[in-house]
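With this grant's support, we have settled on a layout for protein records. A representative record follows, to show the layout.
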Amino acid sequence: MSHLTYVMISYIVSAIVLLGLVAWVLIDQYIQKSELQRLEKLGVRRRSQRENR
């Protein structure tokens, strides 16, 4: 295996891993927002939104 091949494979693998992590974060963000909307529809509020302080 030549040096150029090794470097190219390393960059490709790194790019795939990075894209996978970005996709994972975006999917998790969508799931968390959906869960928050579901909870808000049920009447559950965030502790930071307390009215009586």
Summary: The two ends are 67 Å apart (CA to CA). The mean pLDDT is 91.
